[in-house]
Write a structure and sequence with these properties.
6% of the residues lie in helices and 40% in strands. With 62 residues, it is mainly β. It has one domain: Complement Module, domain 1. A 3-stranded antiparallel sheet has the order 3-4-5. Strand 3 and strand 4 form a beta hairpin. The chain is elongated, with a radius of gyration of 17 Å. The termini are far apart. The N terminus is likely disordered.
Length: 62
């Protein structure tokens, strides 16, 4: 399948016909936690805790 890139679409976007699909950033949870089990993420001045469980699942709490 050939992709046609439209001139007015940002470089991070891919045009598929009339639909524009943004590329989503991907982060490794172990990198966010520096190899540990917990990281703090901030958004708009609020702090959230990201935890990796024993079952290798993610929990995000305020």
């Amino acid at each position: 399948m050939a992709l046609n890139i439209v001139d007015d679409v940002k470089n991070d976007d891919i045009a598929l016909g009339d639909v524009v699909v943004e590329e989503v950033p991907t982060y490794d949870a172990l990198e966010l936690t520096n190899g540990g089990k917990v990281a703090t993420i901030t958004l708009a001045g609020k702090h959230y805790t990201l935890r990796i469980t024993k079952a290798i699942k993610l929990i995000l709490t305020k």
